[in-house]
Automatic annotation (TrEMBL):
Residues 6-60 form the F-box domain. SMART domains: FBD. This is FBD-like protein. Pfam families: F-box, FBD, LRR_At5g56370.
Amino acid sequence: MGSNHVDRLSNMPDEVLSEILSLMPTKFAVRTSILSKRWRYNWTLVTNIDIDDSHPYHDLKIFSTFVDRVLGLCKTTEIRLFRLRCMQIWVQKSSVSKWIDEAVRLNVSELDIHVMLLELPLSLFTCKTLTKLKIESNKYWDIMDWQTPFNLPCVKTLDVAVFCNPSRNAFKLIRGCPVLESLSLDIAACSAPEEECRFDIPTLKQLKLTTFKGCNFKKVVLNVPNLDDLFIAGPWHSLFVMEDLSSLVSVTYSLSVMDHLLVELLKGIIGAKSLSFRTTNYMKDLPGVPLLNLPNLKHLELTDDGYKFEQIIIFKFLESCSELEHLSIKTAQVRWGNEPESCWFKPHIVPACMLKTLRTMKYENCKWRKDDIKFLEYMLRNAEVLKTLTVTCKSELLEEQMRLCAKLLKCPRASRYCEIHFVGKSFESASS
């Protein structure tokens, strides 16, 4: 390019180079040190430190030495993010604790730790600069000093995943965050039938509770007056008591709970405007359980997990949502066990929302069974203000798909403005 070529990238201000290098994983930022003398120490100005134990690290000693040097040579006085992922190498708890301590010394704002073994350093207990904290440990993690309480005055986002015993570690951490706005708590397993789990967090706006193997608290109490987004998933076997959810807007339930516990869960969300609900094999008696009225609900999403998705459940929800405007139904792509030939249920009375408010409906993974056709025909015949029906088809046979689509298109519609859209593998899109 000629002898007068100017290396404009290298001539950029240190602040700009720091921003560029901070956008990549730290191991790549460090590699730029071999480019020239000008670049030898540019990487030490990064404001994000993102380290994982994947290639090219071959053993624990090499990996630990690299992390020590990165934190030791870092020249910035403030780092926005320190992310440490050790999923292949079993790093000692003492090393992880030392690295977190170094990040606190560098006035870290966001801390993201995913390791096999974990012990938190004392310096983290009172970190004043931390605003976002994510901790995930594949095994049991301890707090170093049981007598020292957490005091994290600026933490607004907390994401914690623990193997067991959340009352001994996770809840102690939660109580130390007085301005918490977003909380995600994932508990692998917990058997504590004598314990009451309370969430008294007036500042909280988002709450996500998940469990994999099951939680068996005596009671879970939610006193979160400013919460607007609630997500609960997994096999919970605890009684949920909704003391105050007066600001709730959006709710997602992907639960394995008994029917009487579900009713208690629904009691606390009567003011919600959006609900996403996944059926499970635990809810065998749900068709016979009276659901509460949800007068403010505008959006409803029902998902089948592959066990038994009776249409009576759909209509039970429709009857409970008198002001519903948008309905989405997702049937299972794979179904467990043998299906009955027909489980079609025709309601005695058309739900009120179908007569005055229901405007859009999606029916995903339609397999064109008799029940599917009857249900869709019923909706078209009775939804008086429906504007759009979208059907996602699962049949692989083009001729069968087109024949059944034609049948649905010929069905009388209560709403003269209703359009039907079809989406499937055999054709990109069709509508009428």
